[in-house]
Design a protein that fits this description.
The complex is a heterodimer. Chain A is built from 16 helices and 12 strands. Chain A is an alpha+beta fold. Chain A has 2 domains: 28-229, Cytochrome Bc1 Complex, Chain A, domain 1 (2-Layer Sandwich), CATH 3.30.830.10; 252-450, Cytochrome Bc1 Complex, Chain A, domain 1 (2-Layer Sandwich). The chains are: A alpha+beta, B alpha+beta.
Chain lengths: 457, 438
Amino acid sequence: MAPATASREPAAVPALGPERPVVWPPRAEATLDNGLKVVLVTSHTIPKFTAQLLFRSGNAVAAREASGLAEITATVVRTGTNSRASRQIEEDLRRMGADLSTGAGADSSAISFAGLAEFSASLFELVADLARNASFPAEEFERERRQRLEELRIERVTPGFLAGERLRKVLFGAHPYALVAPTEAEVEGYRREQLVAFYGEHYRPGNALLIAVGDFSPAEFLQQIEKAFRDWPAGKPGQTELPAPPEVRGRRVHLVHLAGSVQAQVLVGNRAITRHHPDWLRLGLANSILGGAFNSRLVMNIREQKGYSYSPRSAVHALRQHGYLSIHAAVRHEVAAATLAEIFYEMDRMRALPVGEEELADARNYLSGVFSLGLGTQDGLAGQLATAYLNELPKDYLETYRDNIRALTPEDVLAASRRYFDSANAQIVVVGERKDLAEQAALFGDLEVYDALGNRT
Amino acid sequence: MPKLQIPIESTTLGNGLRVVISPDRAAPIVTVGVYYNIGFRLEPRGRSGFAHLFEHMMFQGSENAGKMVHIKLVNASGGVLNGSTHYDVTNYFQAVPSNALERVLWLEADRMRALKVDGENLRNQRDVVKEEVRVNVLNQPYGGFPWLDLPPVAYRNWPNAHNFYGDFQDLDAATLDDVREFFKTYYAPLNAVLLVLGDTRPEEVFALAERYFADIPSNSLPPRADVSELPQTEERRGEVEEKFGTLPALAIGYHAPERRTADWYAAAMLDQALHGGRVGRIYRRLALEKQVAVDTEGGIHYPLGDAFDYNGPIQMVTRILHKPEFTAGQTLAEFDQVIGEIQEKGIGDEELKQVRVKFRSDYYSQLEGGHGGYIPRFGLMHWLACFTLFDREPQLVNSILDGFLEVTPARVQAAAQKYLVARNRAIVFRRPVAKGAA
């Protein structure tokens, strides 16, 4: 019998209370005469603001010139302008209590910055200086190139990196999305003029988007932005045609040998879709049920029942022109085949059986609830705005996302699963000790073996 | 500079559970945390890694919410959750739409009242934790460097000096009785604080806390173990093999001044001057100017925490990956130049002014996000918890910044001269055995 003191506690789970409406803050939008698009949203969580100056050009459009060119360009952008040396830039940032980072992915380049709202005008001036007047000092370029080489050598012994790199190569072939990182020889071959040329062509206001979220008045911020950016001469880059990726047919296994491994990095993937595809939300919901959440089938099976892995998950990745999905788990070598068997079991279960109403309702709630957590921080909100604007999603994307998710049915999930969890044509990557893995891996398809540099062996 | 005025209300229930609330109704979301005043420093001897393994067990089921139910209910309410184990606290936290507040409090109360796990759960999570250690440490370049490498060199007292992630034989030795004993000893209301931040009213939270937590029985706590260290008299050095990475690395840790002493405020500004990103003195000299290092990072309680979230000996740590053409000795000599310079010449007014502004700005960002930002107000929750458990003063969140902003150049220089000396430090060299990918 329970002690009397415990009797007040109900054993039943309390029901959810009435939901308070999720209201997305209004956005102020403007386009400067030179074509720079500006999006401003207030959020008074802290006396700061966070912003991103985004360019719609990344490593993909520059791949023919040099692999990773957008990335090295972004890295060197922060190291000097016509009027500020590297040390000056860094001290100016600290004086404003600001953080700034520059980087590039496959489809975009970014100068991301955040600082105290009281210093916003100076910070916009500094960012405009980087965007317009970067000087690419030769010694800074040389130093950053050498840093990149050393980083590459570490990436080449990092299991998660090696798995992701191999999967992208397999799924995208001749398309530049296949290139996750340059080779050492490619980095050795970078020339400063290539960076200057990429910067000159792509860091242009007609190619850019400035998003700011924080503790400010939009009218005042817009004035500061006008002042800092209005003299930036108009311009935008031309279109670049990219080769089509291959049709990937037939399940194959790609084993990357990493000497000394004590764990196998397992990664399974298929090509999928962009955010513009009508199936995007359906696939997102199916992914959430398969392995996108802690409370998902893959985690329940591989982690909580079998104990094979700490953090098995699935994910959908949208790039501008194409997309892909992946399922990953880091497991001890001896259960690599067992893990693959469970991954394919769960993929096929998604394809074979409609999801039950309760599981579906839970997943819909999860996606719509987590989406609204983005309202809680300036960075969260800025990230969502960047996704929506950079991908040119519908105007009301943020406002309608939750309702759109909640309208999805078991048939939607089943249809998306059948289309995209294509187990017969899935590509399997395993990174680890060849001698411990080759036999297990070969059970799942024709086996190709690579070394960590990407050479077939 | 405007004073911080974060609304904070707190109370203590009859069983000793502290409740701290910070309402903000701007968005319909709420962050709920429960912090227990026990971390890996005080786990039982012969059971290295146990505090963290136990953290996993807290997700394995309680009296009215079986295995995975807590996770399922939080996700199904539209929220995210996790837990983490630190030197001196273990936390459990979730961010959810505010209509799930009562449900989350019920779940947290259920596992504080009556953890219910079996041998199968323990075997399962032991396997999961081993894969976690492999993926984060044993199968990663520079895994565990330096957070697992420095303590055994820097400290002599077992609570500070052991393997916090756990030796596998110790994980294997853990029993269900150990789990029950640890729960009974440390997971008591008297040893915990409940935090609710965001879209709620204090009266509502107090009432719900009373309803779900007040009748959880409390037992007395054991006397706190002695975690102090004998004074160090000479520099300590150690070596660790790097299995995957190609770059040699070293980490230097200096014992930091005691929390909330005058020296501690000065040391935090010194830390910002030395480790504050690309403009910090160490990165600037070693990576940018002399180009000896490929990367440097560091800080007080780096890389696990910050200057606030510990309650015992801690170090100011610098981690350096350097180019193979420089010896570890040459790299250390460059580092020592940086230290020597600030000891001899101190810090100028302009530099300290910049450091103060950056420190304040970083402090705000931590309050809002921290921890990757996916849990809104994670940092506010974390510091409120530490100030409550260690200092019994949650309002410190609003006032502690003042002490840092009053630090003078002379005090920064004095702190450098007093603490950044060889006999107060430990150095670990991580030496690559491999020649890189081939």
